[in-house]
Structures are given as structure tokens and as C-alpha cells.
Fold this sequence. Notes:
The protein is an alpha+beta fold and 336 residues long. The chain has helices at 2-6, 19-25, 40-47, 49-59, 95-105, 121-124, 128-131, 214-219, 266-276, 282-297, 300-303, 320-334, and strands spanning 13-14, 30-32, 64-70, 77-78, 88-94, 114-120, 142-148, 151-156, 161-168, 171-176, 222-226, 231-234, 239-244, 249-256. Strands 1-2-12-9-14-7-6-3-5 form a nine-stranded mixed beta sheet. The chain has a five-stranded mixed beta sheet with strand order 4-8-13-10-11, with no helix packed on it. The longest helix has 16 residues, at 282-297.
Amino acid sequence: MADALASLPPVAEVAPGDLDRHLAAADAPFVVRGLVADWPLVQAGRRSAREARAYLLSRARDTAFAVSVGAPGSGGRLFYDGAMRMNFREARAKLADIFAQIDAAEGREDAPAIYLGSVDVRAFFDRLHEDNHVDLGARDALASIWIGTQSRIAAHNDTPDNLACVAVGRRRFTLFPRDQFANLYLGPVDNTPAGRTISMVDFHDPDFAAHPRFREALAHAQVAELEAGDAVFVPALWWHHVEGRDAFNVLVNYWWRDTPRWMAQPQDAMLHALLAIRDLPDDQKAHWRAMFDHYVFGDAEAAAAHIPAEGRSVLAPLTPDSAARIRGFLLQQLSR
Length: 336
């Protein structure tokens, strides 16, 4: 099945000079070949994985990094074990010590996966961002770096838009539109490897008897095979399965949202709805579905049109102040 992923339709490609224009209008993934090929980190990695590690160490701050260490024989898949616990352990260590473990395990077939995920580039490195970054204009992007050995990260989605740049090694992204979530057989929404719900399907060995609708998901999938220097844009909420395919891999990504930072996360609202609505009697659930349609998914102006504008409170367009009032009210209610 792993090889079959490579036969999926490829993600469309755009020229590096057209990046900003495509980001402004994109509603589907696209690949930009060679976007970051001139980065010093990319150049170091092309010479060798050890040179890439030396370059990162020369910029790393003297602090502990969070690292995930998989079980030997897991094939780099960071996932659940048979009891739905994580099949990896988490630790904190200096980057030099982590890289020493990677050096020691290099070439071993039973080497454990070693994975540093979503490390804030500006907070943990000096001048790494300044010397290796993509100019995203006015977009207020969070730059993160992902470092590790061979890895397989289950299909998941993220709330922000995402520009993922391969700096060292090769990456394979398998991407699915937002509406394919039911065909990906998602796991628990609270017990997750990294805060996002993941697909329970093993993409290297799918069980179509247990997950028959996964065939439908594959009918809508696209694949991006990326070399060092290439980038892929993943729109907000698109599902993506990510493989680090070499013995050492580094990716730098940029997340940004078009919505203000003071807005709450939709995932939190869904969890609260599970707590408050899902297990109600059917007639009451139908009522709350209609209320959500009226106040949340429907015409917000029409829902409050009968109330004087100065008295609409949180039914008016949200502001930082009204968002803070809602947050405070929810905290008070949830603490009872």
C-alpha cells in the first residue's frame, strides 16, 4: 500500500514567484518546487545529515527540547498501542544529546523513531529563522521546525493554513479534502498523540474489512512527493498523512489564520457540545441543532435584527471585549 500512495494523483505545482498570489486564492493544496533550495540548512543537508545536525546545533539555544521516542520495530509510526496508549514516550533533553542518540542509532534496522515536533524556531534557535525563512508578507505566521528520523504521522488536520517546507530528507504528504473525515475513521477527540484527532487507518497496511470507506477517501486523495528545498501548501482543515522518508528529516512550516487570535478554537466548542448535547434525548438534540443553525450557522444579522443594535451584546459581531465576556462566562459555568 505504501507504494500505491505514490500512484495517487499528484498535487498541482506552481512557480515560486507565484507563491503569494496562489496563497491569497488557494482552496486546494499546491506544491512549490525549489522554494527554499537556497537555505543554508538545505545546503548543509544536501552535503550530509550530520552536517545538517551540526548546522542546527550551531544555532540551538542551551535549553531542553521536547522529544518523542518510539518503540523499536514500530517502523517510525507514532501512534497508539493495543491499549490505546501512545506507542512512544516523551522526554526532554538538550539538542546535542538528542542528536547523539540519532548518531548512535544510525544504520540500525531496529532504531527507535526519534521525533521533535512543532518546535518554535524563534524560541529555541538563534538566527535560524532569519537565515532560513519564507517571506509571507503581512501574514502573521508561526514558524515551527520538525526534526527526526524516519517517521509516519497519521492523517490529521490543523485549524490554520500551513506552508510546509522540506529542509532535509524527503517527505510524502497524502492529502484529503475536508469532507473526507468520516472515510478516514478518526480516533478519539481527546486522547490524541499531539492534540489533533488522527485517522486510525494504517496507510502502509490498510484493513479494508475494518475500514471499508477508506477506499472512498483514497478516491479523493492527492500525494505530494517532496525533496529537500520543496514546499507544499496545506489549506486549513485539509487532512494530511505525513512521512519522513529518510534516516534524518527536517521540515519547517508556517501556520497562519485569517481569523483574529482572540477567537476561540472550534474544536473546544465541539468538545463542549459532546459534553452538553450529544447524549440528550433526540427531541432535545433536534431543538439544539435548530438553535445552532439559527445563531451560529445561519444569518447572524437576521438572528439579532429585532434587538436594538446597542443591546445585542454577544449577538453583535464579535470584538476582543465581547469574546472575553463569552470566555469568562464559559469558565464560570464550567467551574460549577
